[in-house]
Each structure stands twice: as C-alpha cells, then as structure tokens.
Amino acid sequence: MKFALPSRIAGAVALLFTYCSHLAVAQTQNTDVIYSGTVSSHTSLNCGVLNDCVGIEFPDRFGTKDNLEDYAILHPRTLSVLNSSPVGVTTEMANAVPSGSRAGIVLSRHGDLLTTAGANVLNNLSIITWGAEGSQTYNGGSLLNAELVAQAPTRLEFIAKKPFTSLRVEYAAVTSVATKFRLYYAYSFKSNNTNTQYLGATSITTNNVTSGTIPGGVVQGCVNSGVTNPAGAADNDVNTFATFGSLAQVNCPSFLNVKLTRSVGPTDYRAGFVVGSAGLVDLNVLNGFSVVTYLGDKQQEVATGINALQVNVLPDDKSQISFSTTKPFDRVELRQNSLVSATYNLNVFYGFGIESKAFRDPEPVRSTLPVATTNVKTFRGSVACADISIGSSTSGCSGITNPLSSVDPDTTNFTTITQPLVAGGERVRVRMKLEGNGFAGNRAGVVLGASTGLLNLKLLENTTLRTYAADGVTLRETFSDGSLLNASVLSGNKTALSFLTTRDFGWVELDLPAAAAISLATETQVYYAFAEEQRLGFPTNLIGPSGPLPVQLVSFQAKAAGGGVDIKWQTASEANSSHFVVERSATSAEGFAPIGRVAAAGTTTSRQEYLLRDAEAGEQEAAILYYRLRQVDMDGKEHYSQVVPVKWSTPALALIVYPNPAVGAENIRVQLAGTATEGNSLAVYGARAELISRLAVSGREVVLPSALLRTGIYQLVLLNNAGQRVATQRLVVAGR
To answer: Residue 567 in contact with residue 597, Cβ under 8 Å?
Structure first.
C-alpha cells in the first residue's frame, strides 16, 4: 500500500524571471544553506604614511554571518611597476558545494563609489572557486551592476558550474583609486529536491513521440513549421532535445507529444515539460503555448498561457513548464497554438507528470495579521511617513494609500503606491511584518499587482527587496538586482516577487523606484509579504504507483510547541492500514529513528486526524530536527511520507541547577532562566524514569530539600499548565 500527499505550491530556483499561476508556500527551513568557514589565505594589509592601504583588513571576519557589523575590508591595489597582482581573500566552505548550486557572496562598498563614468567597478572583481573538478571564475561585473552596491549588504550570486570547497574573492589592480569593499560571508543553497523520492514519470527512455503541425493556422501553407529532432524529447539522454523553430519563421502552429513511462494522476500531479532557451521571459510567447494531457488517445486537459501555466527556472539554463491536473494521463503535449514574434528556438528536453508536493509546500508565512498600526512602516526617500491610523486610507506620505491593507487578514486587499511617470523623484518603501518567522533558506517576497494589466517585469531592474529582523529595524539582507529576483505571475494579474534568503527574518520591505513604479500604469498594488519554503532542484528520483492509492495523506506537519514538537497528520481515506510510526533524525537524509507509534483506522473513507507529541525534542542537540511518517499495512508493507523539518530554538524557559553535581547535605536550587507562567510544575524522575516528586513552581526558583534525593542520577523536567514538557536538566547527586 502506498500513500500520497496532495499538492503544495511550487517554488523555483531562478537566476532569471519565473512566471507561475500559483504562489509557492511554506515557512520552515527546508533548504540547506552552506556558509563560509575559516579564512585560509589573504593578501596582507600594508598602509602608507597617508593611510593609503592595500590588502585585506580584518580577514578573519569574512564569514561572520550572524553580525553584519563584522566584515573584512578589501583595499584594491593600483597598477605599479613593483606590484600589480590582485588583492584577495580565500575562505573554506563549511561543506562541499555541489555543481548547479546557487551560490554567492555578501558585500557592500566601503566609502564612496569611485569609478569613471559608465564603468562598472565590479568588472575588476572576481569570484574564484576550487573543488574536485578544478577551478571556475565568475566575473563580478557580469553578475551585478556596481551602481546597485550600496553601503548596505548586497548579494552577488552565480550558479556553480563546478563543485567547490574553497571560494576566493579578489580584485584586480586598477589604473586609479578604486572602490573599497566590505566582505561579509559566502554562501550556497544546496538542492533539497533532486534526490527525494516522489511519485511520477517522465518521457525519458520511452522513445515514443509524435510531432507535426496543427491544421487551421492563421497563415495558409505550413512552410518552416514543425519540430526538428522530436526523438530528442523521449530518448535515453536527458541532455538531447527536440526544437520548436523560431516563432518568427513558423507559419502554422506545431505540437510535440510524448508518452510517459507510466500513467499518473488523477489529481495532485503536475504535467509539463523541461525546456531550454533560458526560459520563456516574454509573456506574449508564454501566452502562445499550451500543455495538453492525454490518457491513451483521449485528450484530458489543456492549460494555456500565463493564467494556467507555471514556468520555473532550473539550473543549466533549463526551465519547466507545467500545470496542476485533475485527471489521469500517460502522455503530455506541448502545443504552439498561436503565432507571436520571437527570435529564438525553444528546446524541449522531456515531458513529465510528477506529484505536486515535489514542487510546493503547505504553509506560507504572510503579513496577514490582526489590524495594527505597528505591523507596517512606510517611507518616501529616507524619511519615515507619519503615524498610520486605523481606518485611515493615508500613510502620512503622498502617493501611499491604504497602508494597513498589506498587513491585514484579507489577501485581496492592497496598499496602493502612486508614482509619477517622470524620473528623478523619491523612492517609496513599504515594510511589512510577517505573522511568523522566516528562516535562512526560505524565499522572502511580496505579492504585487497593477491598476491596469500585468506588471512590466522589465522595469524590475531597479526594484529592491530587503528583510529585517523581528524588531522591524535591524537590516538582515538586501536584494537589489532585478535579474536575480524571482517573479512569479499569479492568477488575477498578480505577481509574486521574491528572493532566496541566507539569514532569518521577520519583516519584508519593498523599495520601488521613483519613475512609473514597476508597472506601465502609475499605480502599483501591494497585497502582502510572505516567507515560503523553497524546493530546489528538479525531482529525478521517481517511482510509480502499482495500483490505486488506498491511503491518501492529506497533510503531515510538525511544529515546535513548548519544549517539544507536535506532529499532526490527516488522511482522506485508508484501506488495510495497520499503524503509523513517526521517525526523527538530526539530518534530512539518514539516521531516522522511531519516536512513537499510533494505531491506524484500518479501512475507512472518512477523514482521520492523528497527533503525536515528541516530548524529547528539546533534549536533542540539533538546530533543526527532521520528521517523517512511516505507514505500515496489515501485511507488513511499509511506505514513507516526505521529510518535514522543524527549526529548533532553545525554549524560553530553561533550567539552571546548582550545585550540579550536588555533594553533601546541601539543598539544590533550580532556577528558571526565563519568566515562569502560572501553573508550571517541576517533576523529578529517577534513573528508571520513576516519578520521585512533583513540585509547584510559583516563582523564579525552586529548592529541592536535601532529604528528597539519594545518591544517583535524576532528570528534572519543567512542565507547563497543560502538562507539556518545557525544559529539562540532568542532575547528579553524589556522597549522600
């Protein structure tokens, strides 16, 4: 017996813009972020009598991600007869970074931006990586415009062409004084999706493909129409492809139809293709394509254009086009059903049908909060707008109306930003508080709209997104380059603009340019901010169901609560299901061990809800705990759910025991490091887990009488008024 999770909304790994019909969601950290570690080499700092320094100042600070006040300073060298070698610093990554990973550094300028007119000073900056397959160099000027590097931390990103363990930042010698840079840390987002097993199928190895032209085109005579090398979309090589000809040269719509290795569906699957040509950036081009599903020779469903298709950018200049299905299918077809102007060929690598949970996650964190004026901040230029009043449509800044609508429970409400259609005005910022925490590796963003039509994504180049800590004041990250932002076109003419984060956050800020905002109209609508868990990498570890799926898992969630973790799951139906086992690990891929068992409902068509509490989660020495569900049939067959991460933080209430070990006849004092709540109690357990005593907690300290405990090892457990474990501490008593 197998069970499947219904769909979650897909995310995208993007260096280019991504268009979707749904918003990706989630909130816990499920993306491994690899950070820089020890600095292994650097150019020594030398300063002249006029304090004209050359080299790396504070090199050991390159890699300090938790404090942005700590940074290395790169002082470039000017060309001279004696020495014209670059200035640089090398750091070792905490873990190996695989090929295809998204990686980068965080930097800012130190002092003024000194450069000649029209020159990009980042052209002289290089990022060099080393690993098992050799070195690779990335030019800073090709990754980011220097004008976007402010005196706030900014990211310079690339897709790793080779795996690496070391990363060096260096600046070539220049003919005149150049900009100094602050170097904060390096990072990489590790693919969390490629090796995870999902239900699904592709056209790889089927060698079953048809192609041709669709009759009734707008131009008579199908000259230059059709698909070249159609077999490339269904052969054994994932890197070969079929090609739709340049749309500017096609006289009749064309189609490519491939058979999958097995039938999939009916619901909670995505049907589509992996394509090339750097993605479909032009919305008009996307509107000219359809994805069609078939079961045998019977057409099942059709999705056309930006209101139905989702396009996610993948590494290696590939993208996936897909839509969510409601019927079973065993063939997928890509159809060019209208003639639009474009000058590039579209390469089609293979078709697929994969369960939706491979592309999306269950729970977003949004700025959908109870109405409060403290949940949003607005700015024009560098000046904060006047205080916002509940019920007022103004923000204290001209051009910003209904500021509270971007942080209220209604996701259809919006804040409106009105900008003049002239350059030279002040930028506008809206900073929104999230309803929960966003974690490093999540995607942070905002959902936007335009007063007329779609946003003009080509005008995003000067748009900036920032994240802030939970206080709404401390800057966490700045993302300034439109080419690195992920733009997802949603239904209802909305766009989700986002980026992958490397630091925890609690607020998201949108910073719009003065001229024309980011739409062809003068008004930009800001619906809400969000944090979502990101799925990185295209799923390739696919299995197929051998028959119906009698156990359908509706949801599987794990959340920290008190000193433990509550694990909840729901099933829509079950057949011959014996029991469930919840397993926990400190890593996402291995080391899972059972922590509890719950009897299943057997056979039922009614929705069932289950709950298990991991009371010992707080005792695990891991920042993130991973949980999965093992379902066991009556005949003993076992099947697993996806892995769910829980970012663990130290409980607010912790126990400090003194003395420990305790010797002699002295009393033992137990202090609460946090603020006690009414109804808490302290339980004392012996070595055999027997309850020795339970004492009421009425203040910040509890005294254990010396006569209560004999020589031995004890476990002290702080319980809240619901009986849940909040904090624990081991106590050793000797010499009594």
So the answer is: no
Domain 370-533 bears CATH identifier 2.60.120: yes
Which two three-digit tokens encode residue 553?
């898992």
Q: What band does 423 get if pLDDT is binned at 50, 70 and 90?
A: very low
This prediction's pTM: 0.60
The position carrying tokens 């080299």 is 55
CATH number for the region 552-647 comes to: 2.60.40.10
The sheet with strand 668-672 has its strands ordered as 655-658, 668-672, 701-704
Integer CA distances (angstroms), 222 to 212, 249, 286, 709, in order: 10, 10, 22, 92
Here the tokens at position 530 are 């969000």
> Residue 11: its pLDDT value, please?
29
Task: Please give the Cα distance from 175 to 116 (Å, whole number).
Answer: 11
How far are the Cα atoms of 50, 78, 86, 89, 148 from residue 174, in angstroms, in the given order?
Answer: 19, 5, 9, 18, 21
Architecture of the CATH domain 196-358: Sandwich (2.60)
3-state secondary structure of 561: strand
Strand order in the sheet with 329-336: 209-213, 254-264, 329-336, 289-295, 298-304
Q: pLDDT: is 688 or 343 the higher one?
A: 688
Strands (DSSP E) found in 586-734: 593-604, 608-614, 624-633, 638-640, 644-647, 655-658, 662-663, 668-672, 681-685, 691-696, 701-704, 712-719, 725-734
- Any idea which of 9-18, 85-94, 459-468 has the lowest mean pLDDT? 9-18
Q: Are 486 and 536 in contact (CB under 8 A)?
A: no
Alpha-carbon gap, residue 573 to 604, rounded angstroms: 6
The pLDDT tens digits for 525-556 are 999 999 987 776 788 778 776 555 567 788 88
Q: What is the pLDDT of residue 197?
A: 73
